[in-house]
Description:
It is a single chain. This protein is α+β, with helices and mostly antiparallel strands and 752 residues long. Among the domains are: 1-33 and 203-350, Multidrug efflux transporter AcrB transmembrane fold, CATH 1.20.1640.10; 434-545, 2-Layer Sandwich (Alpha-Beta Plaits); 559-612 and 620-752, Multidrug efflux transporter AcrB transmembrane fold. The protein is built from 25 helices and 11 strands.
Amino acid sequence: MAGFFWITGRICVRYRWVVLAVWACGTVLAVVLLPSLSSVTQSDNSSFLPASAPSERAEALAAPLQGAASLTSVTVVAASRTSGPLSAADLSALRSLSVRLARVPRVARVLRAEVSADGEAAQITVQAALPQSVGLSASAQATLCADLRAAVRAGGPPAGLAVHLAGQVATRVDNNAVGTSSGSKVQWVSIAFVIVLLVSVFRSVLAPLVAVIPAVVVVLASERLTAVAAVHLGLGISQIASLLLIVLILGAGTDYALFLMFRVREFCRTGSAAPDAIARAVAAVGETITFSAGVLIAALGSLAFATFSLYSGLAAPLSIGIGLMLLAGLTLLPALLAVLGPAAFWPSSVRTGAEVSGWWGRTCARITGRPLLVLLLGLTVFGALAATAGTYPPYYRGYVAAGFGGPVTAPAGSDSAAGNALLAAHFPATAVNPTLIVMRLRTPAWSDADGMFAAEQALDQDPQFTDVSGPFDPAGDALTVSQFESASRVAGSAFISADGLTVGFATQLAAGNATTTAAALAVPAVRLDAARAARLAGATAVGVTGQPAFTYDIAQLSDNDLHTVIPIAVTVIAVLLALVMRSLVAPLYLIASVVLSYFSALGLTVLVFMRAAGQPGLTFILPFLLFVFLLALGEDYNILVMTRIREEATRLPLRTAVGKALSVTGGTVTSAGLVLALTFGVLAVVGSASAGPANVRTIVDVGVGLALGVLMDTFLVRTLLVPSVVVLIGRWNWWPSRMSDRNAQCLPPTVR
């Protein structure tokens, strides 16, 4: 296999300008011709629930209450800036606005303006036909809102009249726009910080730029390819997915650059000319980089087995990005190094004999000298942190960021934020974020008024609810059974469909606000009580929808997916490790080290966020992403260290081989870990500052949690615990390969 990578390195060195031209042209064409990632990004993560989720089934059940299941409602809110009722001129302007809105493409109908009870505001509901495809829908919603806002501006509302878009569609569009800005800031701030860090690592001016350029090129190209995949494969791309794509490519790309460039510098310092050093470096680390990327792609690919499409939707885009990054690391990076030659490392010296052992050389002697002591100390510390993780309750009992499981909050200062504020101030019944109980009946509701009355009374008297509104009070005034039986009084209202076969009850939960964890935890009991009430009404189907129901279902799916995806990922990665290590023993403790690292990192995040910061829990997505990323990236570093130990062990006693390997790879691993942790840290700081308020806590939890996990994994687990285990196990590391039969010098040393 080394021969293949040697040939690849020679070709890239010889035809360096051709390689650069191909990558430059391909990237430019992708940016110019393919859709942007922002056009398919979605901010409402409840849309990633499968149709089989109870809250999604309830949402479908409630479709007849909204007039037309295939139409999406976008509320346009108009209100006077000053106190006082709307004037005749205002109402006339709103009628003209309704006409203009009806002419907007995709708009199916515009409902008559509804004036608020205080007379100071009006809301116009627009119903539009939007495509069901996830990717196309996000783009179509953005276009629709832009056209509606253009129609509002075209009329020039009277002085003193403010007109804004409001509702979930407008909120999602504005959040997606903020997410695009967030992604751009995360990308460029990450690049700036990575360059600064690499300057200190390489002590060079050009080397950091050479290391970062392939990652930047891949980010630009993979974002466009991901958008194409989302459109044609119907993938849902969330804001967190688009941010992770940037962070992961920058982190992994810089890792691969460090793997290769440190080896190029090493060969130059042993007397090789730059072109030969580059080819030798590609031959030496090509297999390592390929298997590292393969492990990462395998871990990410296992996400495709997740039920929650927020997770399964990560598989394709992140795998595409890492695949492209591998290709760039083996072709574009060597070509760039070949163009610059030794100048790439200036002013750092690459002359023969310039290598020094440094801090890692001295540390390695201590590690290999007392491996059992290092291992026991490490297990004690990590075991204590892992025990802390055991105090973390099931994921759905933890904190769920507002809006992450249901309706989202508009970004501060946006048009939709102003519209939603007006909606809440003047139409409180529309903005209370109720939990909706929906029932499907065999016969029209008014044909069994007594049953319907009994159902509403049962809900009204249920301690689970503080308020219940339904068919018997559609306008806020209670109806008698005889009044209810007059179909014209209730048919087509907000609580009963035109055919009378679907009824709804808007409730407020006694557990608390719809955005709280307590409200989500109350959902199972609410569903049971709703089923009891449905039996009184003779309903054939019943469901509960709204933010608490979405949040609960998302957390349940996330928990289930964690138990489904992880065994698949571990199995696939174990097979890849066995292949690259030519061993059946090494993969066992390498996988075990990642599991220990995961629980320790989870315990540390529990201490930081729940014990120190006082959060009631962690956002549900963090445990899942923490395992997947530490599994993939931890094995990434394992492969680098272990393949170098194996290489050195072919000619040196094992203790010496471990020390030699760590002295030359320890700096690479810790530098790579710092870079990756830094990019996750930038995600937490910059991403949360740019995101809509619904996703701030989520992004902070994910960014900080992953940064802490990576730092602990690279500085302690990969470079201390794993080498200690290698020394203790001795020749059995390589069983059943021929290396396990080496002479007694490879046996474990006497432990002092």
